[in-house]
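Note to self: keep these together.
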Amino acid sequence: MNNGDMPRNLPHDIWAHMGSKVGSRSIKDLMELKSTSKELYRACDDIVVYKNVTITNSYWDCTWIHNTHAHNFLDRCVESGNLYALYRSGLEKNFGFRDINYDAGMELLR
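Structure:
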């Protein structure tokens, strides 16, 4: 199915649910899905997608430290309540190498 064949009359929630399922399997596939159309871009930017996305350890790799897009993505995951993102952010704030903040870290780990 190409972009011209996409059913545009589906509700936003259906598109967001699709993005959530794709994101729960692969961030790379989620980013590719976001790039297919404006509708899917908006749907994949929904809070439900960020809450359910599966984040692998490679996304906390040191190469991401200075990547603004990666930090924005991870911040959105934390804001949406993504459990893995909350856990990792809590660990970083408690035991990380930069900006150690024990109180904020413990709050994220709760």
